[in-house]
Prior knowledge:
Number of strands: 12
Strand order of the largest sheet: 1-2-3-4-5-6-9-10
Strand content: 15-25%
Structural class: alpha/beta
Order of helices and strands: EHEHEHEHEEHEEHEHEHHEEH
Amino acid sequence: MRSMLFVPGDSPRKFEKASEGKADALIIDLEDSVVTEKKAEARGLTLSMLKSRPGPHQLYVRVNALDTGMTLADLAAVLPGKPDGIVLPKSQGGDDVRQVATWLEALEAAAGIAVGTTRIVCVATETAGSIFGLGSYKGCSPRLAGLMWGAEDLSASLGATEKASGGVFHSPYRLARDLCLMAAAAAEVAPIDTVYTDIDNLAGLEQETRAARRDGFSAKALIHPKHVDIVNAAFAPTDAERSWAEKVIAAFASNPNSGTLRLDGQMIDKPHLRAAKKILGQP
């Protein structure tokens, strides 16, 4: 999964348009893009969107944060539509995942869904306190599929006046980004890069996405359909990367009892083999 496109939960029209694109996943949003007065209506519309399944995309639902008191009602309303996963905003750590997982277990059973199939992705850096919970996700639940970092709400939590300048995040946000990446790697789940908000700056989007892939992120969240193709392309291996990966795998296949090999004048070992398999999407 490379691209996760947010779609307002109260807009079937935007959902239909998003479904025509090539995003790997659509995140139907019940949180920030829906005003309080329309939350109940959006739940019903979201359920209809889930049931329509217009394309091959994975379908996630971003519910409202646990501190709003609306999370359980959101889950109860949308689970009959069998979403592939839930996105939990403003997550504080592994205990939040365990709470949502407990609710999902009961709701899946009630809806006749195989228990354990609904995944959870956490937006894990939206408050100052959440940064200190990043180390608690490892082993918290087999449902956990990814950790996403976010800057918009974190800015408000910090009382900051600016997140970035010249297209470069300031240090608190780089810290949150890097720690989220490491937390996801430690928990063995997908690290997901934050949304790019300068909608018409497609060159900047490509640059930020390539930097995310370079550092180890495997997907990016998106807020506009025209970003999808650029992000998908940026996460695709280059011809040079594919060639290198194929040579590494072939070298170890020819020398199965060797832990270290020489390839093109460079020493390679098992971490290089794991990296090569990741590039080619091999287990």
